[in-house]
Amino acid sequence: MADECDVSEIITKFLLNTCRLRPCPSEHRVEAAVQCAVRAAVHPRNDKEADTIPLITGSVAEFYIEPMLPHVGDIDIMFHCSTQLAIPRGHPPPTQLPAEFHNNVKVYEIVDSHLPGYVYLPLRYLLSERTDDGQYEYTEYDSGRYLTHRSAMDDDGKNQNIHGPAIFADNSHRSRLSVDGVLCVRCLSWPPQAADWPTRHRNYGWPDSATLDHVVSNGCDVVGVAHRQCRQHESMGKLQHRLSFSRAEIVLINSWTPVQQITYHLLRVYVKTERLTESADDSEPAIMSNYNIKTLMLWACEQKPRSWWTENVNLVRICVELLNTLSVWLTDTRCPHYFINSCNLLDRSLNAESMARKLMSVNEERLSAWFICHYVEQCAQLFPSYVTQLLFGDMSTSVKLQKAVSEIVRWRLNTSLFDLWHTFGSAETLIVAHVSRFSLTVHSCVYWMNDLTKIDKRFSIYFSSIVLLHVARKISRNGFNDKWMDILVKVLGHNFSQCYSVLSRCETELNTSELFELLQKSAVEHLTTYRQLVAPDFFGSASTIATTDFEALYAYKRGDYQRCLQLSTQNVHTLLDARCWHGIPVYPEFIQLMDDDIVSLRALTLIVNPECRDRSHFVRITQVTLSLYLMTQCQLKLHHSVASLAQTLAYIEVAQERHPLRCTLDQLTLKLIARKVFAVFGTISL
Fold first, then answer.
1. So where are the chain's domains?
2. I need a labelling partner for 18 at 20 to 30 A (CA). Which of 103, 428, 608, 644 fits?
3. How far, in Å, CA of 224 to CA of 529, rounded?
4. What CA–CA distance (Å, rounded) separates 553 from 538?
């Protein structure tokens, strides 16, 4: 093995060069935003008046780096009800609330239990909003009624199971991240249980005063889960809640430097790979969790000088020291809560001596070898097998190791544009799939628009186009009503003036055909604008995106075959030489723009294999396939020459060779139009 110091330095440089800053947009962030919007459309159980207000937490919200190895295992979402609020005991009820709250709100007091960080929530007030000035007035309760644990709201009733306070939705059958949803009660105030956190003495100025103010102003949440020792108790198991500081942790972790975020990622990979967060015996609880690692990092960022993180940076050495600190905590069975001084996160009844000894034995040489075996080589698995064998067949010297990791770094830098292209395609499919599958409400549309705008403003334009198509599809079956009016007004805002007169007539005359046409036309305009804003990011690259595919599709639908042929021909010439082809998700919102042949082929894929519905390569048709289809159809309708059709057939054959067999809809479409061309050839006398 190469010199120990050289190895740790090579690993450090490798990690600093491969852990990108999170791309904007991030696929995980888009997926989390979609899940939030879906949950915002569902009312909590037993409270149909309430809205749910979701918050993305966990890894998706905390990390702004994008390592090569997966750093997001699932999507964590907390959501509170608009009809519930918690306040610290003895605090007066609020007279003003954020707009997200209902006009009638139950207020619970936060009362300490016998265990630090765990509380009870007795009902104390009912707030009612006055119509004249928007202020809240209160009625007191003294009924001894306590809030019990409530599971999260219904999703689609499938693939869910409850663990702890979370309801788990398994999306692996859709090749998506699973979702942990936790119902909580919002507290707008910083809790007295953590009163000394903002003011305690800090030697090194982290967090700074602005960050402290931000954290405190966010308040906290209360989650329905009892302490492990109380879960079997008849009353405490149902009534005890835990203070949650997820909002604070998101702000603090996002204020870390890249070195600190990478260190956090590495520690999480280590404890997960070494199974230190699992129980040795299924009958016993795990000694440690990821939250212990987060707590370790929060304390380290506060208690270590900035120079410890910045001067002669050696990520392996930093991790060794932090793992040794964790070993001391385990030996003493003491993991001090970062926010609540009196709270210990380690259970003294559990034996952690063997784990402590293992962590104390970790040194720089051992951890360097571990990172090569379990991290760097895992990154190398992204290469073809013969390249992996060539690169990592011999790492006996630092020179050979450096050569190997340099190749990975080079590859990582060269794939950034492709990853961005993949993110856009994945985001488009996610958005249209969930709008099509789940109900839209005004409340959920607000979350769609706000969250997508934060990620990338272009996605809000794309979402608006999907809403227009969704409403068009719905009113074509069931007519226009107030729900769709409210959604269009909310999504289009001041830009719906063109539709307003038609909307007004539809309400009185019940004539939706004009509105249907107008919604489709407006949707295509939004989609074209979206394409024009996205395409420059990939101009001249191997992942070129055409901007007029929806214009061509709409022209074909309207019978303007000459315009469609012009646009489609241009798109084929633009796209055919590209290495990667962008796709259009073939969901009902887009199917309404397509002709019967493609609709039939889409239906055929579902009949043959129903799983196609949830696999992205089955529910997409590439821009080049669609352009070739439209080009061929228009040539046939306009009676173009055999020479012209022969050239198109050559293009079709190129596309057939380059589309993988798993792209079922593309292969079927290309085969169909090829046969149509051959059918024309067969009618010509030679």
1. 257-380, 415-543
2. 428
3. 45
4. 22
